[in-house]
Design a protein that fits this description.
heterodimer, A: alpha/beta, TIM Barrel, 8-stranded parallel beta sheet, two-stranded antiparallel sheet, globular, disordered N terminus, B: alpha/beta, 9 strands, Hydroxymethylglutaryl-CoA lyase, mitochondrial (chain B), peroxisome (chain B)
Chain lengths: ~375, ~325
């Protein structure tokens, strides 16, 4: 227990509190309480004080504020796609050893996350962090009920991924011609040709393929990206067989208005159930943008534990939205995710120590002793 | 783990009402938002390093030049409680008072109010809470006693033609009481409004709120106080501030408090962040086409200035992204 943050030690009694306090017990039994249910379990282990339930643990009171509300019109369940091990680590300078990556993913598998993007079968020349893709894919424990997609930029990568045991793959398009050229060294049209090969092979082998569209709300080279362009690229990927399209605000420049306009356009061509959003928090807009997407019916959201990853286009900037902060918002909205926030924080703490950085998650910052 | 996930109540809601909410709520956003800059007071108050008087004055002057129309300058509270604000009179006298900009100051009691007026204050702010325990711990009296104090200030302010802004703390949760009912918040807000406060700022003091809770709270308050007299003051302790602020805008609130560089920590959560960063707020509002009157570039300069003075990194993501390392 030595390395467990003190706040989390207190959280271990959460189960006990749930059992002891009947209103939570009622909802476990299935009897819905239409009124707001709040459990005050405060992770602010700052000083002893009396709160709703006097639980004293090692001299301080452990509480988490867990409210649910009646915000109507939101999806019942939100699927979180955890991209920390791939998108997150890919943008971290420190190369993480293979065994740490495997341990990290195994921990994430035990949090309730149902989709964890493991690695990228890309050339080590381009992404050194992902050089150990095969070892990681083979080394992780594949928990039942959890899916482990991997990025496969081309047919070669796809075949390697399958040989290593991958059962789901992703392809990465962009809504910007310049970004496509600079990032994967070919035009959008050429990239679609490559992806089509990959996706067709995948479908042939009954392997689901997820499509990403980068620069959905702006491009570091072209600036404004029209919703029509995003729709066009998304439609291409969807019609070639991708079961889900993740719309990425790659440089985090989007705001709720541009998110809404983009989604309105894409939703005319692609069913809601096949869409996801992937928001970067470079300008602090991620959760506001995600809320907008949820209000529009989107119920799949990508995030990275601890907000791993910087932004290669803005030195010093932050990267992905933190899974912990996303879960906090979704929990507060009364939406089911199936994910255990504490376990995610533990996994986040583990990887931050391994990468020697402080977490980008505000929830984690507020919960652990500095 | 299973017990925990089952404990979360399932909300069975239809998707149909979602689209009605989304399209109408976006269209209903205000065209203009007034930003109340609380960095020099709420922000600095929670910073460990004491900032010298000249630097405080320079910060406020820079914020004035950035186009903000309301800048909370200082707090006329006893230096024993808040050492950072010990130089309140000098700061208020020393700043440039630009036309069209107001510089409210906090006045916890009549003595502070009188000192503020003597130092040239034209607008003051009083600080209530929606929690009995928080009131006791924070200002050492009951809620009822606090209203009596405020009443004295409001009467004196009325005589002197000085506007009074009211704050309600702990509107989405209290570090001591936990859950705070929207009805309680509505009651306190109504009281302050009827006593004469022209505007009530509803504060998520420990940043625990999420958009649904914000909506429930505002729904209750708006039944008692007109939306135009309301403001929200969100702390970003759990990263929820901007999403909560967006919800408030969707509900018709058009006044938002924020702090340059996201100054201020949280006394209730060691290591946690504090206020919503003004830069990040302005970024969102500009992206939404909402008029603020603020020059983001000049605001970033002010943020950069105070962070250097405090020897700390900015908490604003916009500042982090735009600053060249």
């Amino acid at each position: 227990m030595g390395n467990v943050p003190s706040a989390v030690k207190h959280c271990l009694s959460y189960q006990q509190l749930l059992r002891e306090h009947l209103w939570i017990g009622d909802s476990v039994a299935g009897a819905l309480d239409p009124a707001q249910i709040s459990v005050l379990i405060n992770l602010h282990c700052f000083q002893p004080y009396v709160c709703g339930f006097s639980v004293s643990l090692a001299g301080s009171v452990a509480c988490i504020h867990w409210e649910t509300s009646q915000l109507s019109g939101l999806p019942e369940f939100v699927k979180i796609v955890e991209v920390g091990p791939r998108d997150g680590l890919q943008n971290e300078k420190v190369i993480v050893p293979t065994d740490i990556k495997i341990e990290f993913i195994n921990r994430l598998s035990q949090t309730g996350l149902s989709v964890i993007e493991v690695t990228s079968f890309v050339s080590p020349r381009w992404v050194p962090q992902m050089a150990d893709h095969t070892e990681v894919m083979k080394g992780i424990h594949q928990y039942p009920g959890v899916r482990y997609p991997v990025l496969t930029p081309n047919l070669q990568g796809f075949h390697r991924a399958v040989a290593a045991g991958a059962t789901e793959i992703s392809v990465f398009g962009a809504a910007s011609e310049s970004f496509s050229k600079k990032n994967i060294n070919c035009s959008i049209e050429e990239s679609m040709g490559k992806f089509e090969e990959v996706v067709k092979s995948a479908r042939h082998m009954n392997i689901p393929a997820r499509g990403y569209v980068s620069c959905a709300l702006g491009c570091p080279y072209e600036g404004i990206i029209t919703p029509q362009k995003v729709t066009e690229v998304s439609k291409r990927l969807y019609s070639m067989g991708c079961y889900e399209i993740s719309l990425g605000d790659t440089i985090g420049v989007g705001t709720p208005g541009s998110m809404k306009r983009m989604l309105e356009s894409v939703m005319k061509e692609i069913p809601l159930g096949a869409l996801a959003v992937h928001c970067h928090d470079t300008y602090g807009q991620a959760l506001a943008n995600i809320l907008t997407a949820l209000q529009m019916g989107i119920n799949v959201v990508d995030s990275a534990v601890s907000g791993l990853g910087g932004c290669p286009y803005a030195k010093g900037a932050s990267g992905n939205v933190a899974t912990e902060d996303l879960i906090y918002m979704l929990n507060g909205l009364g939406l089911n995710t199936g994910v255990n926030l504490y376990k995610v924080m533990e996994a986040g703490d583990f990887i931050c120590k391994a990468v020697n950085k402080t977490t980008n998650s505000k929830v984690a910052q507020a919960s652990f002793r500095a | 783990m299973a017990a925990m996930t089952k404990a979360l109540p399932r909300r069975l809601v239809g998707l149909a009402s979602l689209r009605a909410v989304s399209t109408s709520s976006m269209d209903a956003l205000p065209k203009r938002v007034k930003i109340v800059e609380v960095g020099p007071r709420d922000g600095l108050q929670n910073e460990k390093n004491i900032v010298s008087t000249p630097l405080k004055i320079k910060l406020i002057d820079m914020l004035s030049e950035a186009g903000l129309s309301v800048i909370e300058a200082t707090s006329f509270v006893s230096p024993k409680w808040v050492p950072q604000m010990a130089d309140h009179a000098e700061v208020l006298k020393g700043i440039q008072k630009f036309p069209g900009i107001t510089y409210p100051v906090l006045t916890p009691n009549l003595k502070g109010f009188e000192a503020a007026v003597a130092a040239g204050a034209k607008e003051v702010a009083i600080f209530g809470a929606a929690s009995e325990l928080f009131t006791k711990k924070n200002i050492n009296c009951s809620m009822e006693e606090s209203f009596q104090r405020f009443d004295a200030i409001l009467k004196a302010a009325q005589s002197a033609n000085i506007s009074v802004r009211g704050y309600v703390s702990c509107v989405l949760g209290c570090p001591y009481e936990g859950k705070i009912s929207p009805a309680k918040v509505a009651e306190v807000t109504k009281k302050l409004y009827s006593m004469g406060c022209y505007e009530i700022s509803l504060g998520d003091t420990i940043g625990v709120g999420t958009p649904g809770i914000m909506k429930d709270m505002l729904s209750a308050v708006m039944q008692e106080v007109p939306p135009a007299a309301l403001a929200v003051h969100c702390h970003d302790t759990y990263g929820q501030a901007l999403a909560n602020t967006l919800m408030a805008l969707q509900m018709g609130v058009s006044v938002v408090d924020s702090s340059v560089a996201g100054l201020g920590g949280c006394p209730y959560a060691q290591g946690a962040s504090g206020n919503l960063a003004t830069e990040d707020l302005v970024y969102m509002l500009e992206g939404l086409g909402i008029h603020t009157g603020v020059n983001l570039q000049k605001l970033l300069e002010a943020g950069n200035f105070i962070c250097q003075a405090l020897n700390r990194k900015t908490s604003s993501k916009v500042a982090q992204a735009t600053c060249k390392l």
